[in-house]
Amino acid sequence: MTIPSHVIEMLQKVRARFQPDRLKQRMLPSDEQFTTLRPVRKASAASVARYWERLQPTASPQDRDVLADPITMADPDRYSPNIENFIGTVKMPVGIIGPLRINGLNAHGDYHVPMATTEAALVASYARGAHAATKSGGISTALLYEGVIRTPAFVFDSLLDAGMFVEWVVREIESLKAAAESTTSHGKLVSVEPMVDNNVVFLICRYTTGDAAGQNMVTIATHALCEDIAARCSVPIKAWYIEGNFSGDKKASFLGLVTGRGRKVSASVTLPAQVVERTLGTTVQAMLDYGQVANLGSHLSGQLGAQAHFANGLAAFYIATGQDAACVAESAMGITRMEARGDALFCSVTMPNILVGSVGGGTSLPSQSAGLNILGLKGAGNGAALAEVAAATCLCGEISIVAAIAAGHFTRAHENLARHR
């Protein structure tokens, strides 16, 4: 067996930097005294000051001025529902793209889309895609399905008990639905699907969540459902867990790709050849040729779905509008298609796991509230439209990056807008 050269190089670097005996001592557990950081839920000027005292000497007064700036400290308690141990706010660059014309079932109009990112060239790329799409008449969007899932797990002594449990759940479904929905005025339990693995049963509990993303909503509702099961079920349960790690929460999964978790949206636009050539600087055939290679690469590498960079657009959009940014891990799955339609190029994305809300979560924070106001989609009644805007934005990014790589402009654009700006 041959040891890879990079492993040998790494070991040589470690040995050159540290003496083995001293390194061994350094890496032993330490019993030095320390002061526990106690979580504080309710933020105040006093609590923020205490935390900054603790951060000395590594953090300077200038660091404090940047994070705990006067606007933030005018009302620190406004952040209490969203964070613990509050010390200030982070300012990120926010750019806009648009107008992005969307002709959707829920989103209909010309939108300026805020995107928060530190990656130069990203907003310019999405803006170019939005310009091409809008010049082509706009992007058609449709919310196809919605359902946020939580998957509690129940453990039994035997496969027989697991089967009897499933039979009991089926009989009691209406009572379980009532228990879950008693915790929320907006969430609705639309299905419970059992998944049996010998003596372990996962219940796929799927909810609609109104205009909220609904992660906390479905957790609380499912907990009530599980407690009702534990109290009334005649089959002995050894243990139950609120989440059996089956739902795909903040993880890319086949379940999410196939059945969806959140809002499933499809978006499409047909780009005339003239728009592709004049706006994107390439040709329909060149984009199709590269798209074929990129699609092959997706399959050969085992990606879940086939797309270029949904995560870029989603992360920037989620941060700017107060969504749970960690949900990008599951939201950035789906399928991008590009096909010839006569002389034109048909482009579409289908995204099964868009987890966004126009209410709840971080949507009421000052900066994020402003982002939603820019879109005109803050508050009740706008959750579905927000999901369609998210998908349309991702389509813009797919169009632009495929055009850039097909034309050989990708590296030059990043050099001009990022490295050598």
What does this entry look like structurally?
The protein contains 17 helices and eleven strands. With 421 residues, it is an alpha+beta fold. It folds into three domains: 40-91, no CATH class; 97-146 and 263-419, 3-hydroxy-3-methylglutaryl-coenzyme A Reductase, Chain A, domain 2, CATH 3.90.770; 152-241, Hydroxymethylglutaryl-CoA reductase, class I/II, NAD/NADP-binding domain (Alpha-Beta Plaits). Strands 1, 2, 3, 4, 5, 6, 7, 8, 9, 10 and 11 form an eleven-stranded mixed sheet that branches. Strand 5 and strand 6 (200-208) form a beta hairpin. Helix 6 packs antiparallel against helix 11 (273-280), helix 6 crosses helix 16 and helix 8 crosses helix 9. It is globular. The model has no long low-confidence stretch (mean pLDDT 94).
Blueprint of the fold:
Layout: H1 5-17, H2 20-26, H3 45-54, H4 61-67, H5 70-73, E1 94-104, E2 108-116, H6 122-135, E3 139-150, E4 153-155, H7 159-171, H8 173-181, E5 188-197, E6 200-208, H9 215-232, E7 239-241, H10 254-259, E8 262-271, H11 273-280, H12 284-300, E9 305-306, H13 310-321, H14 328-331, E10 334-341, E11 344-354, H15 366-375, H16 383-407, H17 410-419
Q: How would you sum up this structure in a few lines?
A:
Belongs to the HMG-CoA reductase family. This protein is an alpha+beta fold. It has helices at residues 5-17, 20-26, 45-54, 61-67, 70-73, 122-135, 159-171, 173-181, 215-232, 254-259, 273-280, 284-300, 310-321, 328-331, 366-375, 383-407, 410-419, and strands spanning 94-104, 108-116, 139-150, 153-155, 188-197, 200-208, 239-241, 262-271, 305-306, 334-341, 344-354.
